[in-house]
Amino acid sequence: MTQKRYRIEDSLGLPAVLPTAPSPEVSNERLDQILNAILDLRRITQMSADETIETCRRELHDALAMRSELDLMKEAITRTKSELATLHRSENSGKGMRRAADELDAVVESTERATTQLLNAVEEIETNAGMLYTANLPPGMKQHVDIIQERVISAYEACNFQDLTGQRINKIVGVMKFIEEHLDRLITAWTQLDSFRDLITVMPVPTALDDESSLLNGPKLDDDPGHVDQNDIDSLFD
Prior knowledge:
One of its GO terms (molecular function) is catalytic activity. Pfam families: CheZ. This is Chemotaxis protein CheZ. This protein is mainly α. It has two domains: 29-93; 95-202. The chain contains seven helices and no strands. The chain starts with 6 loop residues before the first helix and ends with a helix.
């Protein structure tokens, strides 16, 4: 079937329109295949969307759990910073672990000096008791000298406490200095943060209302400022 041409088409020199071929008929089997393909595509798309939603839901749940953990970590870090600031201020005020270690060292030194004096005195007593034992004593007096010598031996044995006590205290001092060294490293690392420097500035040292320990300063160490020795006291009476 040819299509009728108009006069205007001839005058303009337009090409003739080719007759259109009749469209092939689509079979029912082909339509079923297309519909099945569309249904499969829809099912796959729906499954993909469900899986995506479920994945997003799981990731959101994990993110919320992680946020909770991060909040706990932040709270723990804040408490740690506060504790480190308190330790830093207590060390600067002379009441921290460094001061305690120095006090224990002073205890060992004082105990050692006292034990040396005791041993010297006991040794002198032993020497004099031996001289008495060889002297011409009245009847019944040597048994008293024997008692003195027995007590001298007991005193020697008792003076062993200084060695054992010194070893134990030195172990404690070593542990305290180990902890102090690592705390100093932590404080040095945290001090690089502006927030921690501000915390050190405003962080007060907590004290109980009924705490009277500050009134009990005790004996001073040799390198403490304002240390007064026996010579200074004797000079007041000159």
